[in-house]
Amino acid sequence: MDEENTLKLYFIPYLAAGHMIPLCDIATLFASRGQHVTIITTPSNAQILRKSISDAVIHLHTVQFPSKQVGLPDGVETMTALTNLADSAKFYQAAMLLQGPIGDFVEQNPPDCIVADFMMPWVGDLANRLRIPRLAFNGFSLFTVSAMESIRKHRSQTDPFTIPDFPHHITLRARPPKSTTGFMESLLEKELTSHGLIVNNFAELDGEEYIEHYERITGHKAWHLGPVSLIRRTEQDKAERGQNSVVKVDELLSWLNSKPLNSVLYICFGSVCHFPDNQLYEIASAIEASGYGFIWVVPEKKGKEEESEEEKRKWLPIGFEKKGIIIRGWAPQVVILGHRAVGAFVTHCGWNSTLEAVSEGVPMITWPVHSEQFYNEKLITEVRGIGVEVGAEEWSSIGFGEREKVVSRESIEKAVRRLMDGGDEAEQIRRRAHEYGRKARLAVEEGGSSHNNLTALIDDIKRLRA
Fold first, then answer.
1. CA distance linking residue 3 with residue 334, whole number of Å
2. Which residues are catalytic?
3. How far apart are CA 381 and CA 374, in angstroms?
């Protein structure tokens, strides 16, 4: 490729798995088109990323994370390591302090464009100072961003909570917590000062009605480039996406190979959602009552990595583990979802998990917990009809800690049976899920909507540079 025509791009991810993994996949997309790409991160995160990217294609520049400066233990460089609200606040403070070392590097080696997570709002001032374009990334669907913008502009007071001025009539089971609404709105406002928004989704899933709605109410441009998880083609590539799996992938696949089509339930609530023991027990009891095989990912309990039998009994019925696989820690999720034996996914509706399920044609049982997940649930269940709701009503500001409401085993089992027991409703949901999986794969192929959007975005940045 002509070196003079190559773009020099910097990517600045927020240091949480759900933000870092998709933005680094997006960086890989640009590098695959011959652009000069550098990801700016911290040393321990660079170690994780090196396993899934080629140094020959993508460069990594590291800056030290100021853990001690804000009162965090040395070596804490990712949100996954945190278990309380106080430490989350310290972590965000430390991420803001990266403005100094990252700013120094960028000013001394200016790129043609910066792509930054919206959780790093200071990047906007840096880009303006250097007079270079900034593209924002927030890891949400455009449906969700549109919902947030509609609420921000119209201040809906209806109860139950209905999203105002929206293409679909959507009523949420809960209101967003006030503790996070103001913080999120300030980030969205800053995001709108960027040149455009990069979306890890494909236009067919968000829908033209939401693309038009977003551009009408914000005057901002959105570029759909996903699903970016589909750049992982081989089983090894999929297994190495994110952190190291705590289970052997070959053994997992061997177990799945022994199961009939659509007979296994996959349960995972992401890397930062930790349920208390009483809720875990309800989940286990519901799965046991349903009779289906399962793979259940349970985040490690910090400080309780070696649980006693007495502690286990607080959340695990006797003999339960023999009927499936419990993974304590990081799991190769894309590999699991891609297996024919997996018939449904019980999910917290985090956007990465949602899109990975859509890409593999797996219908979902939705259980939102925090952040933007209650919006994602409505896109899955009411708008696109590729999942069923478990009935979660508690919208938390964080993913861990005690809950006021426990979702009962009866509600969980009912949702599982709606999808796994067959019947007309289940078959229609499964058919739609498979169809969206097909559309997702077409979107990233040559001539597909996301592939064409990437071409147009590269051309747009080149015009800005000229």
1. 35
2. 19, 117
3. 11
Question: Is 244-440 the same fold as 3-230+444-465?
Answer: yes
- What SS3 state is found at 88? helix
Rg of the chain taking only CA atoms, in angstroms = 22
Q: Is pLDDT above 60 for 170?
A: yes
The tokens for 335 are 């590999």
Q: Give the contacts of 284 (CB within 8 A, at least 6 positions apart).
A: 296, 315, 316, 317, 320
Task: For residue 60, give the nearest of 110, 1, 10 by alpha carbon.
Answer: 10
Rounded-to-5 percentages of helix, strand, coil across the chain: 45, 15, 40
Q: Is the peptide bond prior to 363 cis by the omega test (within 30 degrees of 0)? A: no
Tokens representing 34 are 């011959």
pLDDT, tens digit (0-9, with 9 covering 90-100), for 409-422: 999 999 999 999 99
Structure tokens at 33: 């088109």
For domain 244-440, the CATH architecture is 3-Layer(aba) Sandwich (3.40)
Sequence ranges of the domains in the chain: 3-230+444-465, 244-440
User: What are the φ and ψ backbone dihedral angles of 370, each rounded to 5 degrees?
Assistant: -155, -175
User: What beta strand segments (E) does 26-165 contain?
Assistant: 36-41, 58-62, 113-117, 134-137, 161-162
Superfamily per CATH, domain 3-230+444-465 = Glycogen Phosphorylase B; (3.40.50.2000)
Supply φ then ψ for residue 435, to 5 degrees: -65, -40
Per-residue pLDDT reduced to its tens digit, 180-203? 888 889 999 999 999 999 999 999
Quick one: tokens of 48? Answer: 């994780």
pLDDT at 2 over 60: no
Instruction: Give the whole-angstrom CA distance, residue 268 versus residue 266.
Output: 7
User: From residue 178, how far is each of 71, 153, 182, 371, 439 by CA, in Å?
Assistant: 26, 16, 7, 12, 37
Summarize pLDDT for 113-142 with one digit per residue, the tens: 999 999 999 999 999 999 999 999 999 999
The one-character DSSP state at 171 is: E
Give the separation between CA 91 and CA 99, rounded to whole angstroms. 14
Using the predicted structure, report yes or no on whether residue 28 has a pLDDT greater than 90. yes
Are 137 and 115 in contact, with CB atoms under 8 Å apart?
A: yes
CA distance 149 to 421: 39
